[in-house]
Amino acid sequence: MAQSSPHTLAAYTRNLAGYCLWLDDLNLDLLTVRRVHVDGYRHTLTGALSTVARTLAAVSSFYRYALAEDVVDRNPVATVVRPNVDADHSSTQGLNRDQARALLAVAHRDSHRSNALVNLLVFTGVRISEALNARTADYGHDAGHRTLRIQRKGGKSAKVAVPAPAVVALNTYLGTSGADLVLGHGPAQSLPLFTTATGKPWNRSEAFRTVQRLAGRAGIQGQISPHSLRHTFATIALDSGTSLHALQDSMGHADPRTTRRYDRARNNLLKSASYDVARALA
After folding, report:
1. Contacts 24+ apart (CB under 8 A), 99-105
2. Which tens digits make up the pLDDT trace of 57-111?
3. Active site residue 156
4. Does 41 participate in catalysis according to the annotation?
5. Which of 73, 112, 145, 246 has the greatest number of C-beta atoms within 10 Å?
6. Catalytic residue chosen out of the listed positions 152, 231, 253, 260
């Protein structure tokens, strides 16, 4: 499996572990199953279509590797019908502006750590894995901007701007005015940006549950996750006039179609290019 993202590898591992448990329950052998068996497994999968598709992709990836190594004689997932996921639509539930403000208010009252995380996710759109993998040495300053260096999917390094509300929340959480970071006088030992009370890195699942808990306290209904806050960042940015290309760069999307999923006004006839051309030629 040629995936380099730790998050992706962890997700694939979970998918394969779930598949193997299903096989064990039916006394089926991992290396001798046929398509009819995988079809049965397919019908046990629940959740969003994209989640089902990713699960089948993980299993298929395993069998492709096994086939290349001559461990199996075929990939039983190759012809299994997978969900048709609309590349122009995101199934993630985002927040409107009032909901985002309510969540920020609840996070502020909860704890410095909760406030720092929610502010960072809402105001920068970084992935939860990018936030939790960041270290104190990554929080700095560049050409008048407060910044955070993160590791994108595929291991690429990127530097994102951190706006004032998130800076205040992070500085309060880290116990710094930020001046030491600007001057390069931060702690000699780089530590995880988000930690537990004992100083250990904050576990992704615990941070996930924190966002869900805060959303519930804010009265927000539905399936809210850290990715919902990334979705919120994107939709509010586009609604506020951020260009699609600028947002694509901010979110680290390789394909502009991924960014376009968040454009809620893309089917608005008032924004049709036809009117722009007519005005230009009038």
Report:
1. 99/218, 99/220, 99/232, 100/232, 100/236, 102/218, 102/219, 102/220, 103/214, 103/215, 103/218, 103/220, 103/229, 104/165, 105/218
2. 999 999 999 999 999 999 999 999 888 765 555 556 788 999 999 999 999 999 9
3. no
4. no
5. 112
6. 253
